[in-house]
């Protein structure tokens, strides 16, 4: 069985890889390779919400829904406003609740939660997330969502993952992101403002790698290059050692965010930090329908993403 550090906290390992997962929000608290951090590791208790939602699952929608309003199958729904200063419903329902333990071994932990009915959400879904570490391939996160109700249901999924290249300061690292487009956002409400635009000849082009010194981002990226059925993003330290975040092609989006004290959102103990958040759909997808997953009663959807260490010679 996996090691239980405290109630609701699970440590798994295989070879040089290890990870810590908590039951609140099914949060990924840290991933390491040979002791070197591949994610930020916030110093909080298992039952505390981590800073800036680090490592939490975002469902049944990631990011923002404008005014908490969406129309599905001809019916208008009004979600609770959780980002009051921007009048948005943000990041779904599951990131602050206690998930149930489905299974645990030395290498894996599986947690699940019913996404039951909430104000403005008359749909019954069940979400299961499995975190597995492998000595050769690192961490793999497998998510499965099932429509357990009797009507069609919309769904989108994200993970608020802060990547880290060991102890290297973010400003000493290079981000390589294979996305060919970004989605323009209204700077006041962080909502989509038009269609995705090419990154060519812009500051949003990270396809060949770009140093993060002085860069501030809170940007949705899409149109990723397909590398053997995966979208790959890397954060590389000055010695060429990289933390690689990959997703399957079902995660068509990633929100990249730089925590920054100069923007009143520093990451505790680090100051500057970078999140690469895999998402199946863009901001405001419940309202726009863009890349929204629709599940019939009894239907199941599954997707994978993961993290691994890559040496400079790899």
TrEMBL record:
Signal sequence bounds: none
Superkingdom field: Bacteria
InterPro entries: Aldose_1/G6P_1-epimerase, Gal_mutarotase_sf_dom, GH-type_carb-bd, YihR-like
Full protein name: Aldose 1-epimerase
Species this chain originates from: Williamsia serinedens
